[in-house]
Amino acid sequence: MADSWAEAISRCLERLAYERRYSDRTLAAYARDLDALARFAQTQGCEGPGDLTVEAARRFVATSSRAGLGGRSIARALSAARTLYRELGLHANPFRGVKAPHTPRSLPQDLTVDALQGLLAQTPVGDLETRDMAMVELLYGAGLRLSELVGLRLTDLDFAQGLVRVTGKGRRERLVPMGRAAQAALRVWLPLRPGADPLGPLFPGQSGRPLCARTIQKRLALFARSRGLAIPLHPHMLRHSFASHILQSSQDLRAVQELLGHAHLSTTQIYTHLDYQQLARVYDAAHPRSRKKAR
C-alpha cells in the first residue's frame, strides 16, 4: 500500500535528520513546505505522493504564486518536493523539470569600510556592550552566519593560529581566520563571560545556554543605533560586508567561497555584482563623460 502524505513526509524528514544530518532549521523549513504541498495535493484528490501528476505539480506552483508566494519561496518548496521523491525512492517525480517563476535577485546590503570603522571605533562600556562588540567583530572578521555564531563554543577558538572552527550548513566544518581586531575583542570579552565551562557556548545567555538568534539581532541593532549608524544593522549585513570587502581587495572568488563556506561557487558570485556596482559608482562619480551636463 502506498504511503499517505503524512507517512511519506515523516519518513523523509527522518532520513534527512538521521542519515543526511540536515540542521533543525532546514528540517523545519522542509516540514512547512511539504505540509503545504500535502494540503494542496489533497484538494486535487491526491492522497499520497504516488498519486500526484505533473499537471498537479504545475498547478501547485501557479496556486502558490497567485497566493503571493515569491519565486525564491516557491523554489525552496520545489526543492523540498524533489527531495521527498528522491528520499522515498520514487522514480516518477512529477516535479522534475517544474520551475519556479523568476524573481529578480536582490543584492545584499553591505557597509562601507568607513562606516564599519566608525561603528567599531568607540571603546565599549560595560559587560553587555563588550560582548556585543566581540560579536560584531567576529561576524565581520570571520564572515560568519548568525546560526554559526550562535553555535560557537569556547573550544572553537584557536588564538595561537588566529582561527575559529565553524559548523556551517549541512554541518560542514571549516576553519576561518578571525582577524586581529576580532581576537582583541574576544580577549576582552572572555574574562567577563559568565560560567566557567570550557565546553560551554562562547556567548551564553542568563540560563547558560547560547544566546538565541533573535536576542543577538536585537542587541546588534541597539549597538549600531547607539553608535550613530544611520541604517539598521543585522548580522547578515556584516557577513556581506566581509565578503564584498575581501573580494574588492583580492579579486579571489574561490577564496571568498571557502571563507564563507558556500558549497557552490554560484552562490558566491553574487558578490561580483556588488563589486561591479561599486565600480559603476566610482565611474559615475569620476569619469567626465558620465556626468550630466548642467542646464
Keywords:
295 residues; DNA polymerase, domain 1; hpI Integrase, Chain A; three-stranded antiparallel β-sheet; 13 helices; 56% helix; 4% strand
Topology diagram in text:
Elements: H1 5-18, H2 24-43, H3 54-66, H4 71-88, H5 113-120, H6 126-142, H7 146-150, E1 157-158, E2 163-167, E3 173-177, H8 180-189, H9 213-226, H10 235-250, H11 253-260, H12 265-268, H13 270-286
Antiparallel strand pairs: 1-2, 2-3
Helix pairs in contact: 1-2, 1-4, 2-4, 6-8, 6-9, 6-10, 10-11, 10-13
Describe this structure in words.
With 295 residues, the chain is mainly alpha-helical. It folds into two domains: 5-88, DNA polymerase, domain 1 (Orthogonal Bundle), CATH 1.10.150; 113-283, hpI Integrase, Chain A, CATH 1.10.443. The chain is 56% helix and 4% strand. It has a three-stranded antiparallel β-sheet, with no helix packed on it. Helix 1 (5-18) packs across helix 4 and helix 6 packs antiparallel against helix 8 (180-189). 27% of the residues are buried. The model has no long low-confidence stretch (mean pLDDT 84).
